[in-house]
Design goal:
It is a single chain. With about 220 residues, this protein is an alpha/beta fold. The model has no long low-confidence stretch (mean pLDDT about 95).
Length: about 220
């Protein structure tokens, strides 16, 4: 009985996700689902992105965590509307949670919404939430072997960010092998080595985002 039950849950979730996506398309808003392990640098990336796009792109953020509003508070201090979702223990957010957050955001006044998913390399890849693009971060300290262990999240992402590149000289992370494996899993994925601390690669990330925005606007 477990398989049919799971299928029904995913089917109901996908229907809500489709309605979320239709709402975003209607308002011509690009929504990006940002996924990673805990501590890979999602919030830092969003903060740096907001600073670089402020005044040019109207941004909103949906923050998801098991508990607390620490990250949403940080984002709000940048003058960006931020909605906090607390899952209360779930390892991901679902489409209905995102629907509730979208209802609280001023969609007519936004161009771009980031959804910072719960830190996890497994569950977020399974649940559609209605965003138009998926992006995942893998930090250098996590190792270049993660695509072998968690292939789904790499195959469902349009962009793969290698974060914390400033740690590269201190690690055995093999960027060449990583790129080969990710490209084998997902030939269309844009791979973006980056360090939010030093600024390395941020210009390429901004260019990628601006290209996606042009397709929506």
């Amino acid at each position: 009985m477990k398989v049919p039950v799971l299928q029904n849950i995913l089917s109901a979730n996908d229907q809500i996700a489709a309605r979320n996506q239709a709402l975003l398309v209607q308002h011509r808003v690009l929504a990006v689902n940002v996924m990673s392990s805990p501590g890979a640098g999602k919030t830092t990336l969003l903060m740096e992105t907001i600073k670089r796009l402020k005044g040019k792109v109207r941004i909103g953020v949906i923050e998801a965590d098991i508990a607390s509003s620490i990250d949403a508070d940080k984002i709000s201090r940048e003058g960006v509307p931020a909605i906090q979702i607390n899952t209360g223990g779930q390892c991901h957010i679902d489409a209905n949670m995102v629907k509730s957050a979208l209802d609280r955001l001023p969609l007519k006044d936004l161009d771009l919404i980031f959804v910072e998913n719960v830190g996890n390399l497994i569950c977020p890849a399974d649940f559609k939430i209605g965003t138009l693009k998926n992006v995942m971060l893998l930090s250098v300290p996590e190792g270049h072997d993660k695509p072998y262990k968690y292939p789904l999240i790499f195959t469902t992402s349009e962009a793969v960010i290698v974060s914390k590149m400033d740690y590269l000289p201190l690690s055995d992370f093999d960027l060449k092998i990583f790129k080969e494996v990710v490209t084998g899993l997902n030939p269309g994925a844009k791979i973006l080595p980056m360090s939010a601390r030093s600024g390395e690669g941020l210009a390429d990330w901004i260019m990628w985002l601006e290209a996606q925005l042009k397709q929506v606007r």
